[in-house]
């Protein structure tokens, strides 16, 4: 049974390794690979910085999700960011993605399902995109540990179409819950 519900604000993809992704009317998720026709789709790592470390590692970053609420917050700090511009595939509304535990399943519409694997760790590209943005999406929490608000990453468990307006249902994993860490 779903524990929460939100919605999809926008979907994006890019066939090339660009920082931002183009808004699409819909995207198709492919089980075990990611977003069809997206440069980051694949069984093994596809993000350029990770390819140089170990190209044989499993791709835990098949789908990038960001809450629309982050874009709204950034706007209040002078950053006018549109969906897809931070490289996300799916922009959601009404879900605190960063607070969900590892292994949470997000079901889009009737079939497409993504399991959250971890946090997106923002890097120097985000600062090149807009100066000062890195400080807005990263910092330290009360116990001194590094935090990020740059979205979550996931793998596709069940394929299917995803489009703006789709309902997102949240299914938490069995306890004990594991806090998200960067992947």
UniProtKB/TrEMBL annotation:
Highest taxon listed in the record's lineage: Eukaryota
Pfam families from the UniProt entry: MOSC
Domain MOSC: 22-171
SUPFAM superfamilies xref list: PK beta-barrel domain-like (SSF50800)
A GO term, aspect molecular function: molybdenum ion binding
Protein name: PK beta-barrel-protein domain-containing protein-like protein
């Amino acid at each position: 049974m779903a524990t929460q519900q939100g919605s999809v604000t926008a979907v994006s993809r890019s066939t090339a390794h660009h920082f931002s992704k183009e808004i699409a009317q819909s995207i198709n998720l492919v089980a075990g690979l990611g977003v069809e026709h997206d440069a980051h789709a694949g069984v093994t790592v596809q993000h350029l910085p990770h390819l140089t470390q170990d190209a044989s590692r499993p791709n835990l970053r098949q789908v990038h999700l960001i809450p629309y609420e982050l874009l709204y917050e950034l706007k209040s700090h002078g950053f006018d960011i549109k969906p897809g511009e931070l490289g996300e595939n799916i922009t959601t509304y009404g879900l605190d993605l960063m607070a969900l535990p590892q292994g949470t399943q997000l079901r889009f519409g009737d079939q497409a399902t993504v399991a959250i694997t971890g946090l997106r760790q923002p890097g120097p590209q985000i600062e090149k995109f807009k100066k000062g943005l890195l400080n807005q999406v990263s910092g330290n929490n009360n116990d001194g540990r590094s935090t990020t608000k740059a979205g979550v990453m996931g793998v596709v468990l069940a394929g299917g179409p995803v489009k703006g307006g789709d309902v997102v249902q949240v299914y938490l994993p069995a306890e004990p819950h594991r806090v998200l860490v960067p992947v």
